[in-house]
UniProtKB/TrEMBL annotation, chain A:
It comes from Mesorhizobium ventifaucium. The keyword Transferase does not apply. This is Predicted nucleoside ABC transporter, permease 1 component. CDD domains: TM_PBP1_transp_TpRbsC_like. The keyword Protein transport does not apply.
UniProtKB/TrEMBL annotation, chain B:
The gene is nupO. InterPro entries: AAA+_ATPase (IPR003593), ABC_carbohydrate_import_ATPase (IPR050107), ABC_transporter-like_ATP-bd (IPR003439), ABC_transporter-like_CS (IPR017871), P-loop_NTPase (IPR027417). Residues 6-241, 258-505 form the ABC transporter domain. Transmembrane segments: none annotated. It holds the Pfam family ABC_tran. This is Guanosine import ATP-binding protein NupO. Keywords: ATP-binding, Nucleotide-binding. It comes from the Bacteria. Belongs to the ABC transporter superfamily.
Length: 379, 510
């Protein structure tokens, strides 16, 4: 016997619940800060000021957010098709291979605005190809996409080590990374945009790939809600049986959705490589692929939510770094704990407070109707 | 009048602003069979859920045997001697009857003693009420009718004096239903009180002593069964006069539109569900497939519509053959003029999380009317959805509303509108009115007849024998994956019932 639910108004669904989840995450994090003997309120102030207090902080926050937008969108596209792409990390990492080759080949001959599109294509293609085998196995053999994509993360890591100690590395270098890209493969900074508002920035890696991320957010919205492909993906994601009934090919839709997801994951590699370090180095993705899962869940799989959630996680990264610097008792690991709590409450326990909020609204709001649950999909 | 077993006084229950039960007063006399009828959403199930402790009433009082009772959970209800037999059985399939009966009522840490005790108790109950179930049979090997008896035994074993049955005959053959009624009468004679929730008025007339009618959350009437008629009850349920029997003219059957040839289907376990079935449906006729649920009708429909791969067989659509064994594509069949209203509208025919307009193109989402290149033509889709909403009187008339928020009858209308408005040559419909209220049933039946009169070939599969009999021009009866007989619409219910139960009456008679 199912319990009746009250449907929430959109603002509560997309605004109130994430805020409650976040508040609880910070509350618990506050206790952890208290445990190590620091003042949680001061820690919160440092965190927020570190992320948004000065132009420098804002630029870094948005730089981190750029990568998370890509990885969040990647997870969301797959999730709309009922698939859990947990391999964004590997797809992003392997995309570094494509970017590296394009940049090393063209940075001396082409200007950045020609190298960039080539690198976008290379990154997207590598990411998409990397997910092709897991997607095919899911579609044809029923091998669970979660298992295969996570295994492909490890394969990607090995391939990248092989490439970075081998052909991508300059012959004379000891470091497992490419040479520094020339101007022709360095993306212009966007710091001046923040400076327009009067803030001062010494140096920050906030760059033009942020605009690409926003463009992708719009394109993902169009794809999901305005195209036939998106319609088919959503149909399959909600009900494989309904998709079969509607004449949608299971194989095709799984492979299409996963490849788009992989392409988006691949694009996240542009930001740290061409935008910041100007090389391809070991471990340059540094967990952003996994953060994308939390970003997508917290953003309720909607591009607008994902952009906002990505900025939140950018804030945690940037503010967290400041916090570790300002409060010695709070180590880098503490920051990971706080991020973990946010992921826990905003992602894994996303629905924990929902029944209470719904009960509250049920007693206030005029409509009582069923809600859909976020659907996990088996093989 | 006998003392009341249950009294409900001023029961109110709201979900949000929806008042599922409004000021309900009901008195159920001890030792009687009391029917509760009403359309879907009238509040019957909510009321019984309050009585059984699933929900708490917002206000009002429950008295059991004259004493005020506080029922906060099913355990409280059981302690008060109230038992419930659910529409969907709550049995562990791979346990024996005995194990299911004691489940949750074990008296010891070790099972052995409980089982021994239960066995003797069970034998007594079976003798007393003529329940005839082998205590050591495995549930999944029992037919549905017997599984239902296990549910009744479970309640009796827990000392139920008051038994609530929720739509008990939905899954039964007429013969099984008759047997159930005999058991219920016997229980009544032993002094038990029975509450029967149903929407089948015939059953109410056949077995109850008293009947209460619910409509839109209120109790509109309580009648002595002997002093009322089916017509009056139907009118009370819907609030207006309804046609219980479809009015239709003679069929003018034309050429064969749909021919199913040698169809064999196995399920995922390799069990043959449809066994070499062949039949034709001609233009301008409705062919009804009767049968007890689970005799291969569902699998047959799925195979004909291309959703499920067949082991062998083909369909001729308008004279062109389509093989069903290969990768038959529902889309291709649809393009050839086969429209399909699936049995399971919640998971197959609709995506409940979609807006209404999105569902009104499901399966036709590549149609040039609805797309511009790779994009959906949102305006065209919504205009089209609004047209269908008006034409099929779908309520609420909001094409942006989530489909899950429509009632069962309106959801079915969404599917029917989509499939019928494609102007298909062949329409196959599974369970056209399952979970649909009386008012909408009338509408759907009229539409199906209208399709027939336009010269379409219509194939209807339903477990509601009444529906098959009133709609069909020809009736095919399915049993154990085979078509065991063909009859005209004038065939008696008893005759069809025997066929449905696998008794080959004609052979026996000849």
């Amino acid at each position: 016997m199912s319990m009746p639910y009250a449907k929430l108004p959109a603002w509560a669904d997309y605004g109130l619940i994430p805020v409650i989840n976040l508040a609880v995450a910070f509350l618990v994090a506050g206790f952890v800060v208290l445990l190590v003997g620091e003042n949680p309120f001061r820690a919160a102030v440092v965190l927020v000021e570190g992320a948004f207090g000065r132009g420098q902080g804002i630029a870094f926050t948005l730089f981190y957010a750029t990568t998370f937008i890509f990885s969040g969108l990647s997870v969301a596209v797959a999730a709309h098709c009922g698939l859990f792409n947990i391999g964004g990390e590997g797809q992003g990492y392997i995309a570094g291979l494509g970017i590296g080759i394009v940049c090393l080949a063209f940075d001396s001959v082409l200007p950045w605005w020609l190298t960039f599109p080539l690198a976008i294509v290379a990154a997207a293609a590598m990411g998409a190809l990397w997910v092709l085998i897991p997607a095919y196995l899911q579609a044809k053999r029923g091998s669970h996409i979660v298992i295969t994509t996570i295994m492909f993360n490890f394969i990607a890591a090995s391939v990248m080590v092989y490439a970075l100690v081998g052909f991508l590395k300059p012959a004379i270098s000891m470091a497992p990374q490419t040479r520094t890209f020339l101007d022709g493969a360095q993306l212009p900074k966007l710091n001046w945009v923040i400076e327009l508002f009067g803030a001062k920035i010494r140096s920050a890696p906030f760059n033009i790939s942020f605009l690409l991320a926003l463009a992708m957010a719009i394109l993902v919205w169009v794809l999901i809600w305005r195209t036939r492909l998106g319609y088919e993906m959503r149909t399959y994601g909600h009900s494989a049986k309904a998709a079969r009934y509607a004449g949608i090919s299971e194989t095709r839709i799984i492979i299409m959705a996963m490849m788009i997801s992989g392409a988006l994951a691949g694009m996240m590699a542009l930001n740290p490589t061409m935008g910041d370090q100007h090389n391809v180095a070991l471990e340059f993705v540094s967990g952003a692929g996994f953060v994308g899962i939390a970003v997508a869940l917290m953003g309720r799989l909607h591009p607008v939510g994902i952009v906002l959630a990505a900025i939140l996680f950018g804030m945690l990264y940037q503010g967290g770094a400041e916090l570790a610097f300002e409060m010695p008792a709070i180590s880098r690991d503490m920051i990971v704990i706080i991020q973990g709590l946010v992921i826990l409450f905003a992602g894994a326990l996303e629905h924990m407070f929902r029944p209470y909020v719904q009960a509250l609204f049920a007693s206030l709001s005029p409509r009582s109707v069923g809600i859909e649950a976020i659907k996990g999909k088996g093989a | 009048m006998a003392q009341a077993a249950i009294e409900l006084i001023g029961i109110n229950k709201s979900f949000g602003a929806v008042r599922a039960n409004r000021d309900i007063n009901l008195e159920i006399a001890r030792g009687t069979i009391h029917g509760i009828v009403g359309e879907n959403g009238a509040g019957k199930s909510t009321l019984m859920s309050i009585l059984y402790g699933f929900y708490q009433a917002d206000s009002g009082e429950i008295r059991v045997g004259g004493q005020p009772a506080s029922i906060k959970s099913p355990n409280d209800a059981i302690a008060l001697g109230i038992g419930m037999v659910h529409q969907h059985f709550m049995l562990v399939d791979n346990f024996t009857v005995l194990e299911n009966v004691i489940l949750g009522a074990e008296s010891d840490a070790l099972l052995k003693k409980s089982i021994a005790k239960a066995r003797s108790e069970l034998e007594r109950l079976e003798r007393e009420y003529g329940l005839e179930v082998d205590p050591d049979a495995i549930i999944e090997e029992l037919p549905v009718g017997l599984q239902q008896r296990v549910e009744i035994l479970k309640a009796l074993y827990r000392g139920a004096e008051i038994l609530i049955l929720d739509e008990p005959t939905g899954v039964l053959t007429p013969a099984e239903a008759d047997h159930l009624f005999r058991i219920l009468r016997q229980l009544k004679e032993q002094g038990k009180t029975i509450v029967l929730i149903t929407h089948k008025l015939r059953e109410i007339m056949a077995i109850t002593d008293t009947v209460s009618v619910m409509r839109q959350g209120t109790m509109v009437a309580t009648r002595q069964t002997t002093k009322t008629t089916v017509g009056e009850l139907a009118e009370l349920m819907v609030g207006r006069r309804v046609l219980l029997r479809v009015e239709k003219g003679e069929a003018e059957a034309g050429g064969v539109k749909l021919a199913v040839k040698n169809l064999t289907v196995r399920d995922s376990r390799g069990v043959t569900m449809v066994d070499d079935v062949s039949f034709d449906v001609r233009a301008g006729e409705i062919v009804g497939i009767a049968g007890v649920a689970g005799n291969g009708q569902s699998e047959m429909l799925e195979a004909i519509s291309g959703i499920r791969r067949a082991v062998s067989g083909s369909v001729m659509l308008d004279g062109k053959p389509i093989d069903l064994t290969g990768a038959a594509d529902p889309g291709e069949l649809r393009d050839r003029g086969l429209a399909h209203v699936p049995e399971d509208r919640h998971h197959v025919g609709l995506v409940l999380a979609f807006e209404e307009n999105e569902n009104s193109i499901l399966g036709y989402h590549d149609d040039p009317r609805y797309v511009r290149g790779p994009f959906l033509d949102i305006d065209a889709i919504r205009d089209d959805a609004r047209d269908k909403i008006a034409k099929y009187d779908i309520r609420p008339a909001d094409c942006r509303l989530k489909t899950a928020n429509f009632s069962g009858g309106n959801q079915q209308k969404i599917v029917l509108a989509r499939e019928m408005e494609q102007d298909p040559g062949v329409l196959i419909v599974g369970q056209p009115t399952r979970g649909v209220d009386v008012g909408a049933i009338e509408f759907i039946h009229k539409r199906l007849i209208a399709m027939r009169d336009q010269g379409k070939a219509v194939l209807v599969v339903s477990v509601e024998l009444d529906e098959i009999r009133s709609l069909s021009d020809r009736i095919l009866v399915m049993f154990a994956g085979r078509i065991v007989g063909e009859r005209g619409p004038e065939a008696s219910e008893g005759e069809l019932g025997l066929l449905m139960a696998g008794v080959e009456q004609r052979e026996a008679a000849e």
